[in-house]
Specification:
Four copies of one chain form a homotetramer. Chain A is α/β, with parallel strands linked by helices. Chain A starts with a strand and ends with a strand. Chain A has eleven helices and 14 strands. In chain A, 34% of the residues lie in helices and 22% in strands. In chain A, strands 13-12-11-10-6-9-8-7-14 form a nine-stranded mixed β-sheet. In chain A, strands 2-1-3-4-5 form a five-stranded parallel β-sheet, sandwiched between helices. The first copy, chain A, has two domains: 127 residues, NAD(P)-binding Rossmann-like Domain (Rossmann fold, 3-Layer(aba) Sandwich); 159 residues, Dihydrodipicolinate Reductase, domain 2 (2-Layer Sandwich). Chains A and B meet through β6, β7, β8, β9 and β12 of A and β6, β7, β8, β9 and β10 of B. β13 of chain B pairs antiparallel with β13 of chain D.
Chain lengths: 381, 381, 381, 381
């Protein structure tokens, strides 16, 4: 076997999420960055590539050039897949073109601007049979997988109640007045989509909830807020949830929760017990029980289900964090791709896919629709 | 000055909340228990009184007997006030009769079964000019008062977002099947009122929210749950909140949150900072800021406003708990009553009153009405 | 039965520990304060008594007067016991005189200034057969009793390692320069004894260690610090411990640990598991295991031994604190005394006694001796 | 510039620490693994290399072969440095040979078996002028660097008291009976050196203490334990510390602290304030103050010194962990090496060096000597 070759779209020097993708792809030693179209300007793309120790000829002016040029390279040299790390409005086109030209895709979320684009990507993935990973990184934490496994195994009994929140404070003040335009796309409906905070972080909360519980949200009542002066897109939201099995819950997300850094937290209550997990302290899974004391699970610690234990790279007590969970999405994707390149098949993928991306868009759409209707109950497709 | 004399309604031996009232009244050495109608049976009332070291002649068969008999005693002997610690449906009658016979009142919450009863008590209190304390104990924690003072002083800026929850798990299983009928009244609409969990604990969440923020809830959308088999009253609820100043929020409460003990928690976000407080660890007030590190305040610790510092009985680092906060309601009431007995006046009462009781009923009514209307937005009176 | 009658020595208005004793004695409704010699001046004592609603004739000028006068009162009126809440150097004389005149004693710690005095009190207690409670309050927390029970039941296996610390910061600056002389006695060897911080808080750490483990400290090597300018008594200390069963450990205490409030913490490691407890968050007992996840016990929560469950006054999730644990010492003492007054006997006392007081003096002496010998190993008597 | 080329000694597939070195070197995209002598058997080394996607010709039988063969390769191909990830007794020889053949070195700790070897490596490094990084990874956490910066800037005033502990439980049972011999070298004095746990983890505690405080330990009194049956080397220890400025402290370390995972924690007290840091929750620095509330700093959060802020790879609230801190040692080393390859110089190295390695051996020697002398005070060289 050989290391996989990654080409990158977006993620020029200074980009937060591009750097995250590169570090995540680098941790496990399975992937080499071999080329990129890192920026909207050819010159900046070249500078970024140089800083990443890439040869000049593989720093491309744009993703179209990259896809076409790489396709011309010998099989033993050309990139295997592209990683898309651009703003939301620049996900769909490179993803589609890459797939249509035979390249697998890793894509940031939310997957597209609209449901129609999302459905189209689903079709293309199904037609081409290529791999598509969506970087819903939080579901790859060992303690989140332990939570999912315990829930699936019925440890908590039938699920009744959910509380999920994703709270940030960085848009408390008017980012619109920042000198740097780096985040301007986030508040521009044309570039961000129908949803603001709901797309950026609400989709993580939705994905985490459905991932752990294995239950679909069937309807929701969403009261979105736009607290920043002149802001068109939501920067805050409160949602009532109803799940397919009768469970109820609340979701709260915000980018104007002053002082919060990146507080994604979830509590799930079943008939026999409950769980609690906090992204900012991800190496603990707190569980409570009707008849036993509170138990706290840790990565690679005692009492884990195998699927959770497998995710840890290092022994118990050695904390892993955001990058490692992100890396586990890449590792899952890379394992799958290596198997396929070796001519083998894999039953199921252990990473989020194009269907998670479509689901995210369905969620955004339903919430925005509910909100525009004074938080009326709205069904998810 | 002399110690105040308390008569008790309800709270026979074995009662949780009656014992809490007695211990709370005893901590600060300002109040003596002198008589009681502790139980629905005269014999049980007498036994309870004996266990509490009371003389037999002041253990009464019922509250009517107690109020009338005590009224006949000389001024220097008779009780000054009654403490009502019975189930919800037995608050209104003794409160009204006590007031009408010249006794001040301390009453447990929710104050009455209906808004009409609540409004009537407001009238009687206003007509008689007697004192009426409602034991919303959680607002008397030093760190809750610090939270209120910081909010009132504008430390957090204009409030934008609220998250409040009150989670218990003790009704996860069918308490209806318990051998002991002690808690049966809680699931009986005739004895508990329109609300189940919302009356028992939701009103605490409502009171805490309005107390700290100084803001009124103007409308709400409530989705209540009845998860226990055959349960008529709610045992769970999720509510969207809108506040008078435009802030939004969620409230979640439950008595089927398996494994939770008594998790009342609140987070409040303003334009400049935010606060977080947990009843189960009440000696910490966590604050977050746009430009400064997280700061944690402690009772009698550094950086407190005077009104918070005044509430502590012991030095920083010596935890106070549930009973002490409960006792602070009694202490505030006792201070006020002593002033009045000494012929002085006090500007404002530092304890919850009959108006908090009325507010609680308004909240219950609005939530139950919203819920019966599929969580439609409903205004609070 | 009747309520017990307490006379108090020391604890005038403004005293921290006197007020603690009164509140602790008041919580459970078993004890009435009936008289006191509250201060070194007769006038101040009278004022304190008045503020405590006592009749003037039972506010005494000094403890000698109180003991002699109370002895003359009829049996149905006179105090049953005295509570000694004075500085260290004023424990011995009132304790001895009270016992010799037939009064039981509750005494603050450290019990006396010297081992000789401590041994003398042991003799007097043994000769008179009267009760003597020492207020080592921390051992009465439900989670400390759970820790002791688990250790005694072998849940953790043979104990191997101990870490105990008691850290305060209030003497970081020169309290010697304070305007108020209230704490001056603490830094005066004539009034405080051989030890400074070691007597004030080190004895709590020693008592907690031997209480939970059931093991005696057999030798120690103590390196005491005197960081405050011109301070004669220790304000800090680090000690190596060796226990009777071969376990080893460290103790660290300080009153110059800047920023610490009242951080008494202990960790105990056995062959099969370990425990951790923090006084500032006393309602959690953290346990760790070779083969199971971390388990956290809570007062009145799941999985407790009966002796721990019995100590809680209120349901799980309703935090109790410093005063309640202090009150449990009084409650244990009061139960014992009521039994005796009723002519019954009790197998063993559930509160610290004169022997704990003697042990504390042995510990202070050994540590001071070791320190004066450059931390040489020194045996405890 | 180009990526650096790393050759590895030890760290075959299945090795914990070898894998850590590879992942740490891979995160920041500055280093490629190009060759290795991964195992004591040539065949196993080849298999490990294959699993790491290396060409067969660069999987060597032993480090001697690797160093000599790589030296023959063209400058543009040969490795730049070796990473030594073998057991303790196999650090000295490859480090020395690599340096003498012109290769820079990254080495795991403790650096050597004896002080003499350590001093010899210091000489060789000084003679060759090559770089030598020691992977004391814990000092590269952003919050540890913040702690060092705050201390150096006098925020806490003069340091008075230190508490440091490193507690693990994995040797609680007889690892000697494990079927797998993987860890046998740790309990074999010939392979581990004079110290057991003190070398493995005690040196981390020593390094962390001197790093943050900037103070030297001048003397210590060490009471080591050997609790595992038949164990020759220490598996536990308690140490009194005296620092060059008069501060005092305790160190406690253990590998028989049942239930502990990897609990490295430190508390440092100055005249004006204090700090607390826990490796298992590394993204918090807790500080306490004489006159202000407790403040908690977070990576990339508010109020950091620049040297701490620089270390974070991702925004506040996105936890980094063990691997990232380890990677920061590699990153510091790689930056330095790239500068040198570019012909530039750097004032000071921002990573632990051969001198830290020598210091660790001095510490081990002093502690073992003190222990063999019944914990007598022993000076560090």
């Amino acid at each position: 076997m050989r290391k996989l070759r990654m080409g990158m779209v977006g993620g020029g020097i200074g980009s937060f999420i591009g750097d995250v993708h590169r570090k995540a792809a680098g941790i496990d030693g399975m992937i080499d960055l071999v080329c990129g179209a890192f920026s909207s300007s050819a010159e900046k793309s070249r500078q970024s590539g140089k800083a990443l120790y890439l040869p000049e000829e593989r720093c491309y002016a744009d993703f179209e050039e990259m896809i076409l040029a790489e396709k011309q390279l010998p099989l033993g040299e050309r990139m295997d897949f592209i990683a898309i790390t651009t703003p939301n409005y620049l996900h769909y086109a490179p993803a589609k073109m890459a797939l249509e030209n035979g390249f697998h895709v890793v894509c940031d979320k939310p997957m597209t601007l609209s449901i129609e684009q999302a459905q189209d990507l689903v079709s293309v993935v199904e037609q081409t049979g290529l791999l598509f990973a969506l970087t819903h990184n939080y579901t790859a934490h060992p303690m989140v997988v332990q939570a999912k496994a315990m829930t699936a195994n019925g440890d908590f009994g039938k699920i009744r109640k959910i509380q999920v929140q994703y709270l940030q404070g960085w848009m408390s003040s008017a980012v619109e007045n920042n000198e740097s335009p780096k985040d301007f796309w986030r508040i521009d409906p044309a570039k961000s989509g129908l949803g603001g905070a709901i797309g950026d972080i609400g989709t993580h909360a939705e994905n985490l909830t459905e991932f752990i519980t294995g239950l679909r949200i069937t309807e929701l009542a969403a009261d979105l807020g736009r607290f920043g002066q002149g802001r068109i897109l939501d920067d805050d939201g409160n949602i009532l949830l109803r799940m397919e099995n009768g469970a109820k819950g609340t979701m709260s997300f915000s980018q104007i929760a002053a002082g919060e850094e990146n507080n994604l937290s979830i509590r799930i209550y079943g008939e026999k017990g409950s769980l609690e997990w906090h992204q900012e302290n991800p190496n603990e899974l707190i569980t409570r029980w009707l008849d036993e004391p509170k138990k706290i699970f840790t990565p690679n610690g005692n009492g884990l289900y195998p699927e959770a234990a497998l995710l840890s790279r290092i022994p118990a007590g050695h904390p892993e964090g955001y990058l490692e969970a992100f890396a586990s999405v890449y590792r899952g994707f890379a394992h799958h791709l290596m198997l396929i390149l070796a001519g083998e098949t894999m039953g199921s993928s252990h990473y989020p896919t194009v269907y998670d991306g479509l689901r995210g868009l369905q969620f955004i759409n339903a919430a925005v629709k509910s909100d525009s209707n004074n938080a009326a109950w709205t069904k998810l497709e």
